[in-house]
Amino acid sequence: MKADSLAIIDENNQTQWVQSASTTLSVAASALAALQAQTSQPLLLVRSFTDKDGKEELVEYLTEAATALTRDPHAEFATIEVWHADPPDFMYDNLSEVQRSRYKKVALVTIPRRIGGSEVGDEALLDDVYSRTQNIESAWNPPKPCRSTSQGDVLVIREGSEWATAMHAVSRVGFTGCRFV
User: How far apart are CA 17 and CA 114, in angstroms?
Assistant: First the structure.
């Protein structure tokens, strides 16, 4: 899988702006701010990842990161991988060890971890991503529609490297530390 493009899309999944994936986040943030000033509808900044045949496999959501970057050029970010159980198992109780083969990575969400001297804790990051990945008023993932994140799904926090800094399964109430086996 490789990064293919950065795009700004509207709520109808219509492309408003597109550049290569190598375009910097600050350039994309400026484009997002300029386009958002021209419309009342919400816009999303996404990075698309494709397979070897050019088929879109995964989308990374960068809207919050870009907005934070315009407020604080020194902001630091965490990327949360969203893994959905496939098939879903909303009653899954053994959340400390989860079978990786039962899960599919459906999205990446990059959000501010440190901005303006304040740090966001893991629980707040998880709550934020969980709420962003719900299909309540509209599809949360317009480019790659999928179900809402729910009990038994996994959120993986990554910061500054390819290694997970924390893995959490969505439990009946809150989140439970876990690992893939």
Answer: 28
Locate tokens 């900044």: which residue? 45
Show pLDDT as tens, one digit a residue, over the chain (181 residues).
788 899 999 988 899 999 999 999 999 999 999 999 999 989 999 999 998 888 888 889 999 999 999 889 999 999 999 999 988 877 766 678 888 999 999 999 999 999 888 999 999 999 999 999 999 878 888 888 889 999 989 999 987 665 667 899 998 888 999 988 8
Tokens of 100: 């990786």
Contact 142, 11 (CB under 8 A): yes
Q: Is 12 helix (H, G, I), strand (E, B) or coil?
A: coil
Count of beta carbons in the 10 Å neighbourhood of residue 146: 16
Name the pairing type of β-strands 179-180 and 97-98: parallel
All residues at 6 or more sequence positions from 163 whose CB lies less than 8 Å from its CB, including other chains: none
